Every structure is written in structure tokens, then in C-alpha cells.
Amino acid sequence: MCIQTLVKATTTTTPRTDDIECLCKLLTTAGKELDSSTRDDHRRSMATCFDRLDKLRVHQDVDKRLQFLIMVRLALQAQGECTHLVSMHLS
User: Fold this and answer.
1) pLDDT for the residue 85
2) Residue 1 has what pLDDT?
3) Is 80 exceeded by the pLDDT of residue 4?
4) Nearest in space to 56 (alpha carbons), one of 91, 88, 23
5) What per-residue string of b and e applies to 16-42 under the rule 16 or more CB within 10 Å gives b?
6) Residue 81 — φ and ψ, nearest 5°?
7) DSSP symbols for the chain
8) Where are the chain's structural domains?
9) Which pLDDT value is given to residue 81?
10) Residue 35 CA neighbour count, 13 Å, CB half
11) Could you tell me if 53 and 72 are in contact, meaning their C-beta atoms sit under 8 angstroms apart?
């Protein structure tokens, strides 16, 4: 799954900006479907993904724009809001 690949890529000491941004955008596009999936592997992947994003949110090597993107994405996830709002505000 692409999300797992991107999550793994962000676990390096200095995560690449492109990997973080792609992960957030992929979650904006497909996150709702994966989040509401009844498959256990999808739910575990999403939980891992959001745990990793939460760590990246305060990572010192992640620029402020991406920290904000992550923060908004996590807040929307927690509230169960529509995921397309993230791309509207940060495009």
C-alpha cells in the first residue's frame, strides 16, 4: 500500500518534505475510504499512519508549513470532518 511506503519513508532521521506532503495529500484523497474500511489491515495502517503524523507534527526537522498541514489533518481526523477541507485551505 502506498501509505505504508510513505509512512516508512518518514521514519528516517530527517524525513523528506516530499514524503510528508505526499502522505498528507494521499490521506486527503483516500483517507476517508481507508478509515471507514472494515478490513483490519487498513485500520491498522491508518492508525500507524496517524501515530507517525503526530510524531512528525513536533519533529524539529519538519518545516512549519508541513507541521501546520499535519496539525490540520490530525484535527480533521479526530473530528471526523471531511478530508477535502485540508486541500482547500492549504493549496
Assistant:
1) 46
2) 59
3) no
4) 23
5) eeebbbbbbbbbbeebbebbeeeeeeb
6) -75, 170
7) -HHHHHHHHTTSSS--HHHHHHHHHHHHHHHHHHHT---HHHHHHHHHHHHHHHHHTT-TTS-HHHHHHHHHHHHHHHHT--THHHHHHH-
8) 40-91
9) 59
10) 18
11) no
Placement of cell 490521506 in the chain: 27
For residue 54, the one-letter residue type is D
Residue holding cell 521514519?
A: 11
In one-letter notation, the amino acid at residue 17 is T
Q: Tens digit of pLDDT for each residue in 14-68?
A: 788 998 888 888 887 777 777 677 777 777 878 888 899 999 999 888 999 999 9
